[in-house]
Design brief:
The complex is a heterodimer of chains A (about 325) and B (about 290).
Chain A lengths: L2 H25 L2 H26 L7 H18 L4 H20 L7 H21 L1 H4 L5 E2 L3 E3 L2 E3 L2 H24 L1 H11 L1 H6 L4 H27 L1 E2 L6 H14 L4 H17 L7 H15 L3 H14 L14
Helix pairs in contact in A: 1-7, 2-7, 2-8, 2-10, 2-11, 2-12, 3-4, 3-5, 3-10, 4-10, 7-8, 8-10, 11-12, 11-14, 12-14
Chain B lengths: L1 H32 L6 H18 L4 H24 L7 H23 L14 E4 L2 E4 H23 L1 H11 L1 H6 L4 H23 L12 H12 L4 H21 L2 H18 L14
Antiparallel strand pairs in B: 1-2
Helix pairs in contact in B: 1-5, 1-8, 1-9, 1-10, 2-3, 2-4, 2-8, 2-9, 3-8, 5-6, 6-8, 9-10, 10-11
Classes of the chains: A mainly alpha (about 325), B mainly alpha (about 290).
Chain lengths: ~325, ~290
């Protein structure tokens, strides 16, 4: 297919998605608006985690902790010091980014499973801190969060929250797109493929790895802060290691190192349980089965499957192939 | 005072031995097939429920139950490998991990559907009577758990060093191609590895469920065992054993000195500190990269 037709297909797809996203709340009830807003929260986390794990190749199971830090920072600033909401969200995102940078420092020497375990430990530690620092977090009682307000405009309905999250997600998506296409993104990919080779080409490993941690944490902290205002209540039990595993599942099912995959994965993992809600006790069972079947048929995730069929049906791009590992 | 401390150490070692058994399951599968099986903890949970059913509902004798549980657990491992892992054996390692996480969700919720989420009592043949030997103070149960674990580890050691099948498994772990050229059925070895790992997990379940609790979330213990394997150096068999035992002891001691919340966290703080100093764990081989 001619490149021009391919480009046209892309543009019309993006336009269609934009129209649907903008029009949706006007044709949906509050339940769907709320689920969609939650989808954007997870999409933000997935974008951040994918930058770190998908692009830079650093596995993290610590993102439930970043999410919690963002959420609690925003909630505490709003409750104790009555900061304006916008400032709360920005400060929470920035603070989480700093924490991510600091966590990145001891993690510089770790990789693969060891990194996964160390960051998982971080999740356990932060969750326990939420319970112990009851002065700020109210411990196991949880924390109420008042709706966000910017310049007198209150985001109190699901309708308004939807557009707020849509806006933030689009901005952060464009930011991520610029990042991965630029110098930083190329450095991330180089580190993932071969650290030695990246270093030889002049990529400062320590600097880029910690930057990846910081940016990833910033995205997740931002998502956490917005989620605090979206849900209106923080329960420390929510930020367990299951949440970290859910985050990593999103980006793997969606597709590693794919921004579209981050969105699709978030949609998959937010919408699927809602669809299965009627199954009662069978919900988790069916959910697990669908997860296994999906990954068996789409080993590169949803975006990998799209790449495959885009190539097979329209001849666009390249087909993802499984590199044969040595010894098999 | 000293007695309390030693009893804490011994009961920690008992739990640690169970962690070590589960960690062995992780490491055996990883060495042979390059797969990290996140459903390892579910073998522990499932075997707890299987033995509960056989003991309480069918009233079979303890040793028969133990035998049946181990066999059933092993068969479960083989099925999991055939159905979930083998179809995507060549896929990116991340995808395989997610497949095993999905499988563990399925197993956990199946147990929840059949048995509900209440904690069930699982009897054990070991009593909780205290034994005192000088400054050492422990229960029969501690001694029984530690003894059984050591017997299984010894049996595994003999199996890997003295039998032809065991050697074939070690050969496969070193090089699948070379093993295949020597006439080893690599796929058969894969199945056998999963069977053995699941069976060890089964024993661990029968040993640990009476100590902590038996409910569908028992599989979360796999996370601790995984931490133990990482502490020792993932991929090292002595590492898995020592790491698991150390983790059990430390966890118990910090539970003694601090409150229950700190107990859960202290092991992870220690783990991070150890990893910062030794990025491949205590016994892990330092990866030498060739340019």
């Amino acid at each position: 297919m001619a490149p021009r037709t391919a480009e046209r297909l892309r543009v019309s797809f993006v336009v269609a998605a934009a129209v649907v996203a903008l029009a949706l709340p006007n044709f949906a009830d509050d339940y769907i608006r709320h689920v969609a807003a939650r989808l954007f929260v997870y999409a933000l986390v997935a974008l951040g985690l994918n930058l770190l794990t998908g692009f830079a190749g650093q596995v993290s199971l610590g993102h439930a902790a970043f999410f919690a830090i963002g959420a609690y920072t925003a909630a505490a600033l709003a409750e104790r010091w009555q900061w304006p909401s916008a400032l709360c969200v920005l400060a929470a995102a920035f603070f989480t980014g700093v924490v991510g940078y600091l966590l990145g420092l001891p993690c510089l020497r770790l990789s693969g499973l060891y990194l996964a375990m160390a960051t998982l430990g971080f999740t356990f530690i932060v969750q326990e801190m939420l319970l112990q620092l009851a002065v700020i977090t109210h411990g196991s009682e949880g924390m109420r969060v008042k709706p966000a307000a910017v310049l007198g405009f209150t985001f109190d309905s699901d309708y308004r929250k939807y557009y707020l999250l849509l806006g933030v997600t689009v901005v952060m998506l464009l930011f991520a797109r610029n990042l991965v296409r630029g110098r930083t993104g190329r450095a991330f990919l180089a580190i993932r493929e071969n650290e030695r080779a990246a270093e030889a080409m002049g990529v400062h490993l320590a600097q880029y790895k910690t930057i990846a941690f910081a940016i990833s944490a910033l995205y997740t902290g931002l998502a956490g802060a917005l989620s605090a205002f979206l849900v209106g209540f923080l329960d420390p039990q929510e930020f367990s290691f299951f949440l970290s595993i859910q985050f990593i599942t999103i980006i793997i099912l969606g597709g590693l190192a794919s921004l579209l995959g981050s969105l699709l994965g978030a949609a998959f993992l937010v919408i699927l349980p809602e669809l299965l809600a009627g199954l009662d006790v069978w919900q988790a069972l069916v959910y697990g089965l669908i997860m296994v079947v999906t990954i068996i048929f789409m080993p590169f995730g949803l975006s990998g499957a799209i790449r495959r069929y885009r190539y097979r049906w329209f001849g666009i791009g390249v087909e993802p192939v499984i590199p044969r590992r040595l010894g098999h | 005072m000293v007695e309390i401390l030693t009893s804490q150490v011994v009961s920690g070692l008992a739990t640690g031995c169970v962690y070590a058994l589960i960690a062995l399951g992780f490491v055996l599968i990883f060495k042979a097939t390059d797969v990290v099986n996140f459903a390892q903890g579910e073998f522990v949970m499932a075997s707890g429920f299987i033995s509960y059913t056989l003991l309480i509902r069918f009233g079979l004798s303890y040793w028969v139950v133990l035998l049946v549980t181990i066999v059933v657990s092993g068969v479960m491992g083989v099925i999991l490998e055939r159905v979930v892992v083998r179809p995507i054996m060549d896929a990116p390692i991340f995808s395989i991990v997610i497949a095993t996480i999905g499988a563990s969700t399925v197993l956990r919720s199946s147990a929840g559907i059949v048995y509900g989420y209440d904690v069930l009592p699982l009897p054990t043949i070991f009593s909780k009577d205290p034994i005192r030997m000088g400054v050492l103070s422990f229960t029969v149960m501690d001694a029984g758990v530690i003894g059984s674990s050591l017997v299984i580890m010894m049996a595994l050691y003999l199996f890997f060093t003295r039998t032809k099948t065991g050697m074939a498994m070690r050969a496969t772990a070193q090089s699948q191609t070379a093993a295949r050229l020597m006439g080893v059925s690599v796929k058969g070895i894969f199945s056998l590895t999963w069977a053995i790992s699941a069976a060890i997990g089964g024993v661990a379940g029968v040993l640990i469920a009476p100590i902590i609790y038996l409910d569908p979330n028992l599989g979360v213990i796999g996370v601790k065992a995984f931490a133990g394997a990482i502490l020792g150096g993932f991929g090292s068999i002595p590492g898995a054993i020592v790491g698991g035992m150390l983790l059990g002891i430390l966890e118990n001691l910090s539970g003694y000195f601090f409150n229950a919340g700190i107990k859960q966290v202290s092991t992870y703080i220690l783990l991070i500190v150890v990893l910062v100093v030794r990025p491949s764990g205590l016994f892990g081989a330092v990866a030498v990269k060739r340019v």
